[in-house]
Design a protein that fits this description.
Layout: H1 3-23, E1 30-33, E2 36-39, H2 40-65, H3 71-94, H4 100-122, H5 131-148, H6 161-183, H7 186-189
Antiparallel strand pairs: 1-2
Helix pairs in contact: 1-2, 1-3, 2-3, 3-4, 3-5, 4-6, 5-6
């Protein structure tokens, strides 16, 4: 397994740590930061999530720079992204920060696209992430991070950045999902 794939696997391995920090009843106290009162565990969980999400850029950059792009990496990278985002969305629903229907729409899109990728793989094609999918991913990361950090900084300005960014992420999620299916419609046309 090459270095980019190991970085991708580390992203997956950080998910249980993120879940433990966010959901177990640790009492590390609260912190007051830039006008926002938040539990220390949420701040630590947000840092773990942001670090894990940033490895998406690191592994991709390293793989392209050193010509280490593999089919395993093309499979593992989006899987790691989907697992991380799904875990974070479920945590946000559990904490009652976001509505469950939003998480369901986003996670459903991820399952649908993963299913399509499996069909494509069965036909000998490995579909790497496209630009719209990457924008979708980063929009989701920004929105989730804003919620995990309790809208810090923007709270002082009375701007609901977390909610705005979540709607942007939702729009890109649906748009990129539809685009993915439209661009691969021949799978359904040619299927028996």
């Amino acid at each position: 397994m090459n270095i980019p794939n190991k970085i991708t696997v580390s992203r997956i391995l950080l998910i249980p740590l993120f879940l433990i920090i966010m959901l177990f009843p640790f009492n590390w106290g609260d912190m007051y930061f830039l006008g926002v009162d938040m539990p220390v565990t949420h701040f630590v969980g947000a840092l773990i999530f942001i670090f894990a999400a940033s490895t998406d850029w690191v592994d991709g950059h390293y793989a392209r720079k050193h010509n280490l792009v593999t089919n395993l990496g093309k499979f593992l990278d989006p899987l790691a992204d989907k697992l991380l985002v799904s875990a974070a969305l479920i945590v946000l629903v559990e904490l009652r920060y976001i509505d469950s229907w939003i998480a369901i729409v986003i996670i459903s899109r991820e399952f649908a696209v993963t299913g399509l990728r499996l069909v494509l793989a069965d036909q000998g094609e490995v579909a790497a992430a496209k630009t719209l999918g990457k924008i979708k991913m980063w929009a989701q990361i920004v929105a989730i991070s804003a919620f995990l950090l309790h809208n810090t900084i923007f709270e002082l300005l009375s701007i609901p950045f977390d909610e705005i960014s979540l709607w942007i992420a939702l729009i890109f999620t649906v748009w990129s999902g539809v685009d993915y299916f439209v661009k691969n419609k021949e799978v359904f046309i040619n299927s028996k």
